[in-house]
Predict the structure.
Amino acid sequence: MIGEKNFYLNIFQVDVPALDRLIGEALATGGGYADLYFENTTYGSLLLRDGAVTSGGNHIDFGVGVRVLSGEKTGYAYSESTAWEDMLASARAAAQIACSSAEVSPYGTRNPSRGEPNPQADRYPILQPWRGTPMSTFLPFLQKLEADVRSRDPRIVKVMVNLAFQVSDILMYNSQKELKWDTRPMGSISLSAVFKQGNVTENKSTSRSFRCGAEMLSESLAKEMADDIVKGIDDRFAAKRPKGGQMPVVMGAGASGILLHEAMGHAFEADFNRKGTSIFADKMGRQICPKGVQIIDDGTLRGNRGSLNFDDEGIPGQKTYMVEDGVLASYLHDRISAAHYGVKPTGNGRRESFRYAPLPRMRSTYMESGSAKAEDLIAEVPQGIFVDEFANGQVQIGEGDFTFYVKSGYLIENGRLTQPVKDINIIGNGPQALADIRGVADDLSVDPGAWTCGKEQSVPVSCGIPTVLIEKLTVGGE
């Protein structure tokens, strides 16, 4: 939501002359660029465990962060108060940290954007407010969802439903006199169930998260999540651990995008490349996967968990093609890396809160649809594996090596899905996996789950992928 400018100035009890004075103090020791990031966030949560409310509440986080850039040095300080004396102390502290005699880089944009945010271009309007609504208002939705889930399968022995929301008022100002503001909503529902069949138990979880108001708590969402939690549970009980080895792997559409996010997306973030620690640091402009493959990081999807009207440096949200027709076309930039490479920022400067300086981070990362059919890709595989749901993973940014635990999948035998599988790892190398793509289906799905990315800080993201055939990966089985 984008409100009136004075709404945000009044929340933080500042005006533009005061912001200019703070910027002046921040640059007093010779810094080349400074910015201010104000935040007022309301958090709420409600947990229903086996039909009983076991926790819930609200709290508010409030403050301002001051960043000063000078050469390769960054000074950062924050205050949990916007009283003038406290903000002034933070500005002076950041200035002292960044104090440097080094040549100053042009961290600002070449053509500063001084226009006001446009409410007509808002990517996350709020139709029903979270903030100010009694928590008891949301309880009937959780209770109905819990009851619906229990009615689906007699093997269910435990159900947990968790609602979490936040609404953040953001105001940003910098030494180029760019003033930006917006209000960022986020609602998330997480659902988990424990199934017991004889002496065997299986756990299944699902989640939905969107940048919108409480209007997301609809009957259709509850039905979708209840359907999802019981889908495939018979296969979970029937699943076995297959033989391991190198084999073709078909990645299912949607949540398999987490492998794209972790194994490739992080390596495209410009700070890793600027420092030479990414496996892709010397591959700009080179063919890194087959022609026709397009990999995107997108901040413009309406209501998406990873979308932004502006990133946390005030750069407009945008759609960035990292890979175009198989060629590495762009890294993901904040102002610092953009200045280093002499390119425009891509709107990927993100931070967990006002307590942190921004870093290049993903938003919604996905591969565009191709022209194949998912069933035809599976039919191409004489012996391999199909995977559609991942859990924990590990990635080495410098080498590109990755390991992911697969929660569900199937053997592919003679071009058909057969035995359900579980308890396996998928092991590979990011650049090699990209080079080994042999087919991309026309069924892109951006997963709506509550994905959170950790890289020194935590930020909300989303990921997606169409069905993709990779010629060979290592499957860790028996």
Remarks:
- Residues 14 and 150 are 52 Å apart (CA to CA).
